[in-house]
Amino acid sequence: MSTPASTFVLDDLFARDLPEMSVPWQAANAPAARLVVLNESLAGDLGLDPEWLRSPDGVGFLIGTSVPDGARPVAQAYAGHQFGGLVPRLGDGRALLLGEIVTDDGRRRDVHLKGSGATPFSRGGDGLAAVGPMLREYVISEAMHGLGIPTTRSLAVTATGQQVFRETPLPGAVLTRVASSHLRVGSFVYAALTRDVGLLRRLADHAIARHHPEAANAERPYLALFESVAAVQAELIARWMLVGFVHGVMNTDNMTISGETIDYGPCAFMDAFDPVTVFSSIDHAGRYAYGNQPAIAAWNLARFAETLLSLIDDDQDRAIELATEALGGFGPRYEAAWTTGMRAKLGLPTDVDEAAAGPLVTDLLELLAGSHVDYTSFFRSLGAAARGDAEPARGVFIDLAGFDAWLGRWRALSPDADAMDRVNPIYVPRNHLVEEALTAATNGDVEPFTRLVDVVTSPYEEREGLQRYAEPAPEDFGNYRTFCGT
Ligand code: AMP
Ligand code: MG
């Protein structure tokens, strides 16, 4: 396969449908650009030839400096609530939508850049990104994909050859990101704030056509759009919770309409189970703590619903009534997805009734929190316990008697060990491993990074020689802190 640039097309549907939210813009030049990592499998899915992507022309495409004929890169406008406070104009301050690739199966996917230079939305920022944080997004998003969790994907990270100034000078980079779209709750907040109902309706119709086409046939299409987004977000947040993922910055501009996870800034996987876990250095109040994520998703969806009121019904009171009722569906939907997932993690046969399963889950989480148990490795070791070897699971509890009592109740339900191994990952991008890989890559050695990507993209399959990837951080790793907007 080869990809003559002339045969592949970057469409500009977003820019055509929503010119008011699209500022035509160009990526910054990077004469000494060098590819750091390329996702060959994703390239193949997009119909792009990896060999061509590695060529000077291909690298030019990956950083947006040479785009196919007819492409029209834009910076997208959006608003957002940051830590609860409305910012009416955020937008792509260091990003660009190059355009959309429509693959042979008819799926439309955004090709998007992060770190491609200042835009009219930069608000004093430099528009740039550093190698470390872009590789961080790459490895964590690809791990999420490997876990089967909806997410934006990472096609490549390219070092620009230029320095980015943070606390220290760092090597600059561009991430090439692929997503089913970059529509966010914040996109709707932006459109609603313009008070141009025509624009808002066009945005909603664009979102329905791309992500929730069944809503078009509903009696109230825009209410159905809201319900569909609430449903995919309920499923998504449940998936995060089940693997111990903390997003870290669930602002409304970082919540997608598609239901994909987006914006891997200060995110991290929790080690010891604790609902109040926070990694982000700026999240002092714990707004985006692990255990708060479902409530924050509901809060964000309420902001989304507000933007749609004028489309839902001409009578404002009636619109509020309908939206409130629809929003009320989020909690039960989330609970159902999470409960189903927890039952699967425990390998419970389907005939076990909720009266037994519910308290079993609640009691286990209390035991995990009480003994500061490593979340990921515990659930994996529980598979071994279902096979008869309970020692690895038992050994991590301070309250041994409490755990033994729980173990007896659980085993009496005949858990299915093989089913458990299919849903309890053995390898997640653990914070100490991510840091180690990023430090090496920033210093020029990308091998630990590519190895980590390889391990975490097949998270359920135990492999020889990878024991250190399955273990919690050593004690001396200390409290982990992550940073935003780096
Ligand atoms: P984020 O926290 O990455 O979701 O970004 C929030 C907002 O800040 C978005 O509008 C970004 O485009 C913008 N932003 C983040 N970092 C930079 C930067 N280095 N230069 C310009 N804008 C930025
Ligand atoms: Mg963002």
UniProtKB/TrEMBL annotation:
Q: Where does Mg(2+) bind?
A: N254, D263
Q: Which GO terms describe its molecular function?
A: AMPylase activity; ATP binding; magnesium ion binding; manganese ion binding
- EC number(s) on file: 2.7.7.-, 2.7.7.108
List the Pfam families hit by this protein, alphabetically: SelO
Catalytic center at which residues?
D253
* UniProt catalytic activity: L-tyrosyl-[protein] + UTP = O-(5'-uridylyl)-L-tyrosyl-[protein] + diphosphate; L-seryl-[protein] + ATP = 3-O-(5'-adenylyl)-L-seryl-[protein] + diphosphate; L-threonyl-[protein] + ATP = 3-O-(5'-adenylyl)-L-threonyl-[protein] + diphosphate; L-tyrosyl-[protein] + ATP = O-(5'-adenylyl)-L-tyrosyl-[protein] + diphosphate
Enumerate the UniProt keywords alphabetically.
ATP-binding, Magnesium, Manganese, Metal-binding, Nucleotide-binding, Nucleotidyltransferase, Transferase
Q: Which domain of life is it from?
A: Bacteria
Say which enzyme class the record assigns.
Answer: transferase
The reply on keyword Iron-sulfur is no
Keyword Iron attached: no
Which InterPro entries does the entry mention?
Answer: SelO
Q: Binding of ATP: at which residues?
A: G91, G93, R94, K114, D126, G127, R177, R184, D263
Cofactors (names): Mg(2+); Mn(2+)
NCBIfam families in the record, alphabetically? PRK00029.1 (NF000658)
Protein name in UniProt: Protein nucleotidyltransferase YdiU
